Amino acid sequence: MVHDLKIQPEFFESVSLGIKTFEIRKLDRKYGFGDLLILHEWDGDYTGRYVEVRIVYMTTYKQQADYIVLGIEKVKKRGA
């Protein structure tokens, strides 16, 4: 499954550099192991840059209700 999501510029950079290897997200959709996240950089509007990551780990341990930690692995980066 593919999920298109917004991501703020400071987090986008860390993910695109491979430094940030997780996402904490509201559990408002059916995430699954191996799913693809297309993280579109958003600074109030789309910048045109995005990074594709794959979910390699998931846990709700010690999270607020309805939130999940997604371990991610970069697939590729695109855009300006």
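That was protein one. Protein two is written in the same sequence-then-structure order:
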Amino acid sequence: MTVMTQSFRPASRIAGIGVSEILVRSGEAAALKRQGRDMIILGAGEPDFDTPEHIKEAARQAISRGETKYTPLDGSAALKEAVRRKFARDNDLTFAQNEVTCGAGAKQVLYNAFMATLDPGDEVIIPAPYWTSYADIVQIAGGVPIIVTCTAEADFLMRPDQLEAAITPRTRWLLLNSPSNPSGAAYDEAALAGLAQVVRRHPRLWVMSDDIYEHILYDGARFATFAQVAPDLRERCLTVNGVSKAYAMTGWRIGYGAGPAPLIAAMAIVQSQSTSCPSSVSQAAAIAALDGPDAIMRERSARFQARRDLVVSGLNAIPGLSCRNPKGAFYAYPGCGGLIGARTRDGRIIIDDRAFADYLLDWDVAVVPGSCFGLAPYFRISYATSDAELETALQRMAAACAALSLAGS
């Protein structure tokens, strides 16, 4: 008797979407490192610092008190109050408790929002370069990502005229990320005010602001978020943040968002059918983070700024590479256009930024190609690692580029 077995067929909504290339490339580099290669991996999207001790102690105390049960669906009342205090203190934004949601990371908050609001064919405007998951989440939710290219000459920021040109009758959201992953670009108050003028002309358009790198900002810059700059548009804004980056709590998985109560209630429906509440112990730790001293954040931001200066100056000293000065986050986004078409010693051609990233692996340096972020030919470097590793990586990249033969040379 022959048994016919049908091969696995994924749902159409994920058929064209893969696991994040950032994770794939970082995994490949980690595998090479386990094989004995002296690999320097510059793909990590997390601080290399440890979670501050007072936050870990708050988690230990919560466990000792038996706070290991379910909490309310989208966050405990205590955590929501801490989030409300944070928005009032840092951003001059006032929210009621039913206007706050907490999830298993800022990524879940973004996912909940898109799942709760997008109908098939609804459009989301995303400035490029962008964090790779944005477009994928929109597509999984049935939406259409509308990518707006933001050039290096414009500091990778979207202009109001670009926003205006991208809006159609199907546009539902504008998604902003400042400071940006991958470019480190940051919108100041004036830039956000210019975008707000466009948003006012389109009542159907809402704004989602991903502020996860809020506290990693350089050169004395003052952080601004959209709802703060345009309070009259507050009822069309979702402000998303979390404790992962500022407090080195990536593994604790706590993110939060604030916006109009009907939106937050719709997002709660999505979360109720996926993860339910975030970790109770992590919530206790997040309260300690949000209510605790902020000196350590300023100290770490200063250390990131010193690393930025090291990396940017080192990259710009390498012929064929060019890098603008990031305003925040912990990434550099250098261009490698000057090396496209170059030939390696074994005869390979650097045809694009993916080929360049592959080539750097031969020199034991792992980076992420800019194609992953919607803008080529660039590559992303995370400088959330030690100065010694960064200096070695720069030396290897300089040697790798010097070993290339440019066309006509």
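The chain has a mean pLDDT of 96. Keep this in mind for the problem set.
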